[in-house]
């Protein structure tokens, strides 16, 4: 079943996310190959960059605080894309859905204490052969209205 192009421009959100220092640290450690949290001892094979975990290093940096790893945005910015994929109006069979790709354009750094708001819009619906391509573009801004990331998320739905 093809996704109806009448859903182009359909919007999702806004979704809010409060950024916490420990969430930023846990993500950085996990991405570096470690195990986040205190339940397991030991350091990751390659420690994360100090700006991602160390308050003193962050305070001494041009950013003035710890900052989020670039891919941390997947934690909060994916929500409108996920909402579109399960939206009954689009009629997508999740068993046939494959997450195809994502890309990010970064803006202001994300810091502990930021409150982010993410909105999304269906910006592409295309049928190719027996495949439907769904593209959702998301924009996340901080409490000052500064754009922190724009994401483009694409799913393929097999026919």
Automatic annotation (TrEMBL):
Domain FAS1-like dehydratase positions: 7-150
Pfam families in UniProt: FAS1_DH_region
Domain of life of the source: Bacteria
Stored InterPro entries: FAS1-like_DH_region, HadA-like, HotDog_dom_sf
Protein name as it appears in the record: UPF0336 protein
Organism of provenance: Anaeromyxobacter paludicola
């Amino acid at each position: 079943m093809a996704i109806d192009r009448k859903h182009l421009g359909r919007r999702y959100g806004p979704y809010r996310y409060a950024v916490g220092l420990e969430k930023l640290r846990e993500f950085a450690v996990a991405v570096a190959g470690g195990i986040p949290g205190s339940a397991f001892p030991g350091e990751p094979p390659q420690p994360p960059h100090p700006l991602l975990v160390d308050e003193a290093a962050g305070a001494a940096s041009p950013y003035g605080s710890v900052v989020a790893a670039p891919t941390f945005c997947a934690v909060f910015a994916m929500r409108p894309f996920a909402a579109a994929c399960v939206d009954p109006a689009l009629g997508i069979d999740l068993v046939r859905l494959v997450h195809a790709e994502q890309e990010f354009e970064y803006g202001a750094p994300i810091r502990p204490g930021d409150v982010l708001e993410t909105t999304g819009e269906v910006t592409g619906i295309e049928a190719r052969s027996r495949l439907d391509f769904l593209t959702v573009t998301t924009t996340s801004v901080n409490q000052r209205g500064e754009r922190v990331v724009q994401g483009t998320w694409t799913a393929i739905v097999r026919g």
